[in-house]
Amino acid sequence: MSAIAVLRLPLAVDLSGFVKLLQRMQVPHRVSEEAGEQVLWVPAEISDDVRSLYERFPAGDPEQQLDIPEAQPLKRPGFIEQLKHARATGLILLLSLLVGVLTLLGDNLETLRWLTFLDFRVVGDYIHFTPLADSLAAGQWWRLFTPMLIHFGILHLAMNGMWYWELGRRIESHQGSVNLIGLTLLFSLVSNYAQYYFSGATLFGGLSGVLYGLLGHCWIFQLLAPNPAYRLPRGVLVMMLVWLLLCLSGLVSMIGFGEIANAAHVGGLLIGCFTGLLGGLYNRRKLAA
Of 118, 163, 170, 242, which residue is the least packed, with the fewest Cβ within 10 Å? Predict the structure, then answer.
């Protein structure tokens, strides 16, 4: 659950009473000091409730029970409620699901060919690819991005969808929907071209290159400008980096996971680290100003 800054107050304001009220109500929260202000962080899904509660009880009321709905522990928001704060994340996942249905998860080649990096036609037992330059000259620029929506199998789609939901929401909560869409398209472009450059004319697809871009972005951004939204559990970061190394070693393909788009993963991670570097430095400078 991603956190956002719900209150920014001068250091002279006493928040202790309100914090005790949040504790009694079992509301997840955190207070930090940034640029001479105290900042109250809460899960994005309940930010409006907490802000409304502060407007009514800025000093808190830790000594007695309040006979108001907000005095009850706030419920963990459901999927629909979370989706209201992650519309761009949900849009990418919905498009991936629709493409999965239309392409029969890679089995419907006639539909699939409109979304692959290279156009192709099947002649007997062989696939003949159209040069990328010819497709771009024909105005098919979407091919640079749409391979991220292609998935080969339900497990491929489910795993990528789960990680995009987790990482995408973090960036969307802190940098907004437009920035998430922009980063997603950038990571898709770089990872797709990297895979094409190193593997040549092949069929590839999936959100995994974008996922490594999102991972690198959150990782480096958090190192330079610490933010609760980008704080990844150490185990998650280690697991994904170890998985990348195992894929690069060829072991994952040997044990039956099929061909892995390693160049897309590495390309996505590198460009994600670069955008995280730029974003982190910008925010660090902004906070210091």
Answer: 242
